[in-house]
Design brief:
Length: 354
């Protein structure tokens, strides 16, 4: 492979904001695997956000990209899976499997799509220093004839349209809006764009903790919600605390610490088959590899309020943000019923496909 922009390339990133800024170019924020695609003739490489290759996990996508992309190009975009008219991140996670036979089977049953939103190189020319407006025009032209499963992400210069997208597109599984300066060159690894994501709050049971990598202080709080059968389901973690607060939390939670996991709602967490029946901490993950997933059980008696952006099935899609303790709330009242459900929106209307 001999391209003007060679792998690996760290993708350009975004910093969070509370509101959609004026005077920028706007796109939907896709909920998938960020990927940079390098094509040089018959050679194709799909690189992840961390630089690891993704090509082997998406053979159907590799074939479509070879068939539809310009002969020599580098694109930035998102790998997604669409099911039932919305993005399905859980199905995407299943595609990262060590067995080639499993990968091939899933390529047929849950095929992926690629949504392109930037062009880093075309032919012999690097576009890294080219303003966004020109890169985007070149991308639109380069993919003019592309068809499913290769798409060009819709964009707008209208802030009001971006606000409408922010409200409507969540129902299709997208998680916000990204704003990009018109004259911006491509700046790998830098947070020079702006992302605006949905934020809601929920009252959750704190049923466990994990230690911080630095030592015996709180690394993350394990959060739970009760389902309609009265079973406490693990829905995510809250982890962003200053070191002093991590130490304080350890002291605050010490009276709730259980000597063993016996009698805890997640007592069966170490048995892999138990995860098929309930959501518990320590579920096997192909992303974490040999990472230590052990945790400290706490009596599920304290409630905290957390902020979250959106749900992925029955769990928080991203790490929840701790807001405050809620001593006025009973743990049994922390149920899924409190969660807001976005209005459904068909993803085909976002991509303009049928």
């Amino acid at each position: 492979m001999d391209l003007p922009v060679m792998p690996p390339v760290a993708p350009m990133l975004a910093k969070s904001a509370a509101a959609i800024p004026a005077g920028m170019r706007y796109e939907a924020k896709w909920d998938g695997f960020r990927a940079i695609v390098f094509r040089d003739g018959d050679e194709l490489e799909i690189g992840s956000r961390t630089g690891k290759p993704l090509t082997r996990y998406f053979p159907e996508l590799a074939g479509a990209l070879l068939a539809q992309l310009p002969p020599r190009c580098v694109l930035d975009g998102e790998i997604v899976i669409v099911r039932g008219g919305r993005l399905d991140f859980d199905a995407l996670l299943e595609r990262i499997h060590p067995a080639d036979s499993r990968v091939r089977m899933l390529a047929g049953t849950t095929p992926a799509s690629f949504v392109a939103f930037d062009l880093l190189a075309l032919g012999d020319a690097s576009l890294m220093d080219t303003p966004l407006r020109e890169r985007r025009d070149a991308l639109t032209e380069a993919l003019r004839g592309a068809t499913d499963p290769v798409f060009t992400a819709p964009w707008t210069d209208d802030q009001q349209v971006a606000r409408q997208w922010f409200e409507q597109y969540e129902g299709a599984g997208l998680d916000g809006v990204v704003a990009k300066p018109f004259g911006l060159g491509y700046r790998p690894g830098e947070r020079v764009m702006v992302k605006v994501k949905h934020e809601r709050t929920a009252d959750c049971v704190v049923a466990g903790l994990r230690h911080h990598k630095s030592g015996p202080v709180v690394g993350s709080l394990l959060l739970g919600l009760y389902d309609t059968t009265g079973r406490l389901q693990h829905v995510g973690v809250s982890a962003a605390f200053p070191m002093r607060r991590r130490q304080e939390l350890m002291t605050e939670l010490e009276p709730l610490r259980m000597s063993t996991v016996e009698g805890h709602p997640w007592a069966e967490w170490a048995r892999e088959e138990a995860h098929a029946q309930s959501r518990m901490p320590g579920a096997p993950s192909r992303w974490t590899g040999v990472k230590d997933l052990s945790w400290v059980p706490l009596r599920p008696e304290r409630v905290c309020e957390v902020a979250y952006d959106h749900m992925q099935g029955d769990r928080f899609r991203h790490t929840a943000r701790f807001r405050r303790w809620r001593p006025d709330r009973e743990p049994r009242d922390c149920t899924y019923a409190q969660l807001e459900e976005p209005v459904s929106y068909d993803l085909r209307q976002v991509l303009g496909s049928t």
